[in-house]
Target: Transmembrane protein 230
Amino acid sequence: MAYVDHAFSISDEDIMMESSYSINNRPPIKEIALALSLLVFGTLGILIGILMAFNRVGGDNAHGIFFAILGSILFIPGFYYTRIAYYAYKGYKGFSFSNIPPV
Model:
């Protein structure tokens, strides 16, 4: 007789127990708001930093470059989590709101 692994099989008891199980895939509002604000402030930081570097605000380019670097540090996680939230909202395979960590 062949070996059958019953650890992952579905029995009648499992079907009866499944009725109380529900998937909660609501969008996390606070986390998405944080990701959007990081994206917006990061984009503004990069743009303002580039303008500051070209116009030599503060006497040299260093202030603008620092501001652009700070903006990119904000932009990268903001873009990443906003993209995950958008793809999860659109229903792309492999993306879920559970991929966004809680705040």
